[in-house]
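**User:**
Everyone, produce one record:

**Assistant:**
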Amino acid sequence: YPCVDADLVAREVLLPGSACIPQLQAAFGTDIADENGEVRRRLLADRAFATPEGTARLTAITQPEILRRIDAALADAERAGAKLAFVDGAVIVGTPFEQRCDALILVTAPYDTSVARICARDGIAPEMARRRLDAQTPLETLRAAATAELVNDGTPEQLREKLEALTRAMQQAVVVLPSGSDLHISISGGVAWYPEDGRDIETLKKYADFAMYQVKHSHKGRMCDFDIGSYHQEAYAAQTQQDFALLLQEELVSYHFQPIYSARSGRVAAYEALMRVDLPTLHSPAQVMQLAHETG
């Protein structure tokens, strides 16, 4: 099933050229964006989360555009035939989008653990991390709205057990479609661990996505950890296919004629024609022939 990353959408809303940026500058200062229009996200966060009024102002400016883009992504998924979709977002409860959700899975951690994780991830002081957490919807409100809660407060092994239990529970759930028919859910998931697999959210999400798609193409309905060896193997395979296409398009080959001498007369009796590929990733004829066979 498709999954819309609300955090990614929120980042896109702050890209240069966004209509939200002039409004944010009016509210929090023109220096929150540099001369190229890039938003200084940490400065914006420090100012917006300093007071409840600032947080509310930030939400009022950015949330409508974020929700509009999420709605558009969900509409695209529905037109493509998806009967169910997921939205991964930190701010759903208390927004107009909450009413569109059939179920809400809440992921939590103890307050001090969350502070430490934010400091390690973003390189900020504990005071700034606490300010961000305190600006969020109260935990009691989130729990009251949630269908299920996943507490991430232990070791990776303990979290894996909780993920598997949640997967089993969701696979037993049934969603009633607008048509009245039942839809049984089968969930595949990929997991990337901090800090073993990556130290920033973009890398972790990329690796988790890779692990998820590996599951979907092998054993659906399971959780799978990211494996760097498989990732490099897939990346290398993709690169060699791209290079093979470039070889054909640009004719990146050179030809050599190697003489074959007669042992009896010592003269050249024939020539062997050799083709060399001028690309470092395609270094053997067998590899080129295999790619040619695979691509038809």
